[in-house]
Amino acid sequence: MTIRKVIYSIIIFIFSSVNLAAQIDINNRISSIEESEISEQDKQTLIEDLYYLSLNPVNINSADENTLQLMGLDAFQILSLKYYIKETHQILTIYEIPFINGFSQEVLNQILPFIYVAPVLYKPSLSLDSVFSKSIYDIRLQYKKVLEKSWGYIREDDKGYQGKNFSTSFRFNQSYFNRLSFSILADNDAGEPFFNSKQKLGYDYLSAQFTLRDISIIEQITIGDYRLGFGEGLAMNQSLNFGHFTQDAKSKKNYSGIKPNRSITEYNSMRGIATKIRLKDISVYLFGSYNKRDYSGSLLTTGLHRTNSELQRKDSNIEAVYGTHIEFNRKGVELGITLFNYHYKYPITHQSQAYMQHYFEGKHNSIYSFNASLPIHRKIRAFGEIAMSENKGYAFITGLDINLGYKRNLSFNYRNYQNQYQNNFASAIGTQSRNANERGLYSAFSARINKYFNCFIGVDYFNFPDQSYRANVSVNGYKIRSEINYQPILSNQFSLIYKMNNRPYNETHTNKEIYPEDNILNQIQLRYIYSKNKNLMLKTRIGYSRTKNYKSNENQGMFVSQDLILSPKTIPLSLNLRIAYFNTDDYDNAFYIYEYSLPLTYSSSQLYDRGLRSYLILRYDFKKNLYLTARYSITYYKDKTEIHSSNDKILGNHKQEVSFQFYWLINKKRKRFINYLE
Questions:
Q1: 4 pLDDT exceeds 70?
Q2: What CATH number belongs to 216-476?
């Protein structure tokens, strides 16, 4: 045994008493980005990606930046890890990780569920015997129901919901390390027909994918449903978009490649085949998709097929996409070209709104883009992407990420998206849902002040050069977000979060003229978490909001919530309880707060008006990898006699929901860690 191995054997002996049985608390990872500028669908996708990663840990010596970021590592930690592996040696054991600059025992516990240690060339066999004996299988069955029936279920004409008032889903996943995966998804929303004459297949949405990796020069091939992401997302991005205001103050995005789709989100994915071919420093992606889309002149993305009119629009258009992305990567220099075309069977049209005059219309479009990322200095990286659509409209984004030291980051980026730029698949940094008609300058700073304090501040100033939604002339606006976290001891954490937004909207003035005025939102939240051990956690939140616009001097809102989470050691039952009180003057002061839900399901509540919100979650573990979870929630409004509107209208002042999930993880026996020292 070499001296180096002797040293690491001593390290293992010293740390062998440390509890490394880290629990996969995906809820904590999700709640950490609760305030990020991403949609609920993206947060649901994040849950699915984290869960799959936990079942298929990656080799820490060869993990890419996308995967490391998904685990929760920041830019400095990723840089330190890559530098350590390159300049020192490949990591020999997990116990070595806390000694890397920027890492600690706490960080190791955070990433431990998602990694293993092995030589870079280690590759699990694809023999049938190995695949079937070492694959992990998981099955999830889910059921949800609102106890009060809304108008859509009781009306007697043909405009109501055609199904029952419950939703259900089924998921099956097979995973074999990171070399093979297979999944089947089935989902039916509340109100959609289920095993009747209008839906003989039962489930409204069906999805499947099969993926193989690392076969000669073919690094990956996926057949079925998948998502794509390249460069900064200006040409193609169906992957998770963290948007603005990520806590590590990092602007550069790491969209790279093909992700098998395992989410029940019914849009924003391809259906066909995609592959990645690696030729030394060059990677070539080829993809093709043929998919049915909901259509009513424009594309519909709700995924809801409850009424006769919604059922008629289901899958009524066909979308075909084909293209390539070619990527060069050597010594930190990244260059990429993306070319693709998409085509529809029936032409896309839009309402005759003035701000929609440059929206894509027609049957086909082509997109061309170039992206680059260059290290200017060991701690400075420049990046950018420029894209053009078939009508010659263009968009570009450029920026700098600067590492100022241990957990100190500074970033700048500038974006300019022409109104004429047309691309249904773009999802880069931006204030609007469409990457067009926008210019903006964003800057962010994050720092760990000492072992107790860390802070973040981000500022985004934007301009819409032409007319936009609810603004008939060019407008300027801004977003500001800051956060301070204080953790005096491991069991106590305080967070103070402040945000200020201003997006001007049209107002009718006394002279009957209509033009935009400021619409300013100020919101502050104080959060406290007490977690003495894994068996007990308390979470307290207090929030206050104030808006100011042209019509009224000031409106405001507030909420307070308390969470209790119990996981006794002596019985296989855990409990999660929340009680929240809210009081807001108007919709602009509503609060959107993260809720614990059924496992691997994202949920948030909108606290608006005046009332109480509460839920109770019980989970019973029949054995280690087999459990049943039940959830009951109720929202009570003090001054309402009906809730929602149209088909969703409920008579009364409260709304109750029950949900259940059965989960079974099969064959979780394979070895999690492979160390050099064995």
A1: no
A2: 2.40.160
